[in-house]
Amino acid sequence: MTSTIDKSITLTEFLQLPETKPASEFIDNRIYQKPMPQGKHSRLQFKLCDVVNQIAEPQEIALAFPELRCTFGGRSIVPDVSVFTWERIPFDVNGEVENTFAVPTDWVIEIISPDQNATNVISNILHCLDRGTKLGWFLAPNERLVLVFLPGQQPLEMRGSDRLPVPDFLDLDLTVSQLFDWLKPGKPRVDA
Amino acid sequence: MTSTIDKSITLTEFLQLPETKPASEFIDNRIYQKPMPQGKHSRLQFKLCDVVNQIAEPQEIALAFPELRCTFGGRSIVPDVSVFTWERIPFDVNGEVENTFAVPTDWVIEIISPDQNATNVISNILHCLDRGTKLGWFLAPNERLVLVFLPGQQPLEMRGSDRLPVPDFLDLDLTVSQLFDWLKPGKPRVDA
Asked: What is the ipTM of this complex?
């Protein structure tokens, strides 16, 4: 369940509040807490990060981060998966990833939960696209549907054997069915 | 609450089933029942139809229909408001509106309810745009937000004093605030 605190506060005030669990987002001067992640959400979030990082980390092309707070353009959001190209990842002097990300992700992925506020999720994807994000995926596990958002374009509705668009920097071939088949862990099944 | 019947049926079989209340929609070979309309939904639905018909009916430009079943492109959907230009409205020999609408609406308006499946609602708007609908509005009363869908374009997020795009055939000047102010019926208030 997404809860809202109606009292209007500033972004600076919001960022000084202690982190909550699940994370809270700051959208249009209001605070919204993300829903408690459940099984399907957790599985898809992990697999998406895993498949991207297996390809992109060894070659230092990009990195996928789950639940990373990104603060830019007046909002502070926590996408389910944020994929940053290597040169845009903030590193400290020791070569470690910085804690604070103040730039839009290159690729944003959101996985909708049954009771989640989809309006805010889509609003956040549009917020990212308007500020430089090149690709957004909106996964609806219940409908086995992915809405694909590209800057300046009408969203695409993809199902089944549709091949999902991925960013240019990533060599990944994935259909919607293959993605949702990750919900059945274990050895590949013949009947899958 | 949106309920789903998982058994896969054909569109022809679906259309032979008795109508339900609230209406059921046929999307991607599954049946989804719309949520029971509540106060804010009912009020906005009526006012949207009213404001369009006040302008468009006397001049025979267009008509707005609430809860009209539209069956085309393999789906049978019931948008909250469907606006048809006059020449696209099916009339019978007596000049009465036909019961069956088998063409996409020119302008589709959906009003999201707290527990509604927003994924299906957006999927339906995209389904319409892909088949000739010129404009889609997705109203989120809780967030005081309207997502505006235009064919081939990235959806627009509009709030407050943003002026809402309307179809060319309609001379209507409306901001997001004015639209949601309809939730306060009665005489215009100074504090509104």
From this structure: 0.75
